Amino acid sequence: MNKKELVDSMAEAADISKAAAEKALNGMLMAVSDALAKGDKVTLVGFGTFSTVKRTERKAKNPRTGALIEIPAKTIAKFKPGSKLSDAVN
Hints:
Strand 3 and strand 4 form a beta hairpin. The model has no long low-confidence stretch (mean pLDDT 95). Helix 1 (3-14) packs across helix 2. The strands form 2 sheets. The protein has a 3-stranded antiparallel β-sheet with strand order 1-2-5. It has a two-stranded antiparallel sheet with strand order 3-4. Helix content is 43%, strand content 30%. It has 3 helices and 5 strands, in the order H-H-E-E-E-E-E-H.
């Protein structure tokens, strides 16, 4: 499912226009992004938790050349599904 299909599904489920559904989705994504950028967690009970994890600097091997390269430290986004989502998928 891509973003357009998600907006269509949201609009139909909530009985609202596609424009309103897209605004709602964009607002939700912006709120989650802003919270994660501040280092906060976003928990949607039953759905899951969005959080950030700091990866340390590490060394890796370039598969093409075999040369050792250094991968810098960075912060990544992480999602842990909730129980209701896990049950719905299984």
